[in-house]
Amino acid sequence: MAGSVEAVADAMNKLELPEVKIRIIHKAVGAVTQYDVNLAETSDAIIIAFNVRPEANARQAIDESGVDLRQYSIIYKATEDIENAVRGMLAPEFREVVTGRATVREVFRVPRAGFVFGCYVTDGELRRNAKVRVIRDGVVTAEDTISSLRRFKEDVTEVATGFECGVGLDKFADIKEGDEFEVYEEREVART
C-alpha cells in the first residue's frame, strides 16, 4: 500500500506546470480518517484514496463538509484523473484563424446608414459580426467588426468566395478602393 501512495504522489509531482501548482498536504497509509477530512476542508484540498475507504465518522464528515473524495483501485486511473484536472485548471489558449479575404472595389455613401463598401470575396467567406482587419498596402490600418452584409438588396449572414457583396463596418469608415478586408476568428485550442 505504501508503494501505491508514493506512486500517486510521484505522478502528481511530475504534472506540475508553471501555471498550476500541486501541493501534497498529507500522505498516509490506511483508511481515510476524520483528520484527513478536516485537513482537506481547511486547506480546500481533495482527498485521493487508493484502494481504501473512509472510516464511518470520516464518511459522515465528508457528507457534511462537501470535501471532494476521489477513490481509485487502479493506479493509472488515479494519475489520469489528476492529469485531466490539472489540464482543466490551465487557462485556455486561443489561436487566430483567417476565415476570409475580400477586396474593396467601390465605396458608397448611403444616407442615414453611413458608408457601405462594395467588395469581392477573394478567399474563404465573409460573415456578419465577424472580426475584420482593414489592410492597405500590406499594413493593417484598422480592426473592426462587420456590422452589415448584403448581396444585392438582401441581408445575408455570409458571402462565399467569388461573390460580390456590400459590407458595413461598426466604426471605421476611412476605406479606399483597393483596401483588403481580412476576416478572422479566435478559436480555443486545448492545452496539453
Number of helices: 4
- In the predicted model, the low-confidence regions spanning at least 5 consecutive residues are none
Report the order of strands and helices: HHEHEHEEEEEEEE
- Known CATH architecture of the largest domain: Beta Barrel
Provide keyphrases for this structure:
192 residues, alpha+beta, Elongation Factor Tu (Ef-tu), domain 3, 25% helix
Q: Explain this structure to me?
A:
It is built from four helices and ten strands, in the order ααβαβαββββββββ. Helices cover 25% and strands 43% of the residues. The longest helix is centred in the middle third of the chain and has 15 residues, at 75-89. Strands 3-4-9-6-5-10 form a six-stranded antiparallel beta barrel. Strands 1-2 form a two-stranded parallel sheet. It starts with a helix and ends with a strand. It has 192 residues and is an alpha+beta fold.
Task: Annotate the secondary structure layout.
Elements: H1 2-14, H2 34-43, E1 46-50, H3 56-65, E2 68-72, H4 75-89, E3 93-110, E4 114-127, E5 131-136, E6 139-151, E7 154-155, E8 158-160, E9 164-169, E10 180-189
Helix pairs in contact: 1-4, 2-3
Question: How would you concisely characterize the structure shown here?
Answer:
By secondary structure, the chain is of the alpha+beta class. It is built from 4 helices and 10 strands.
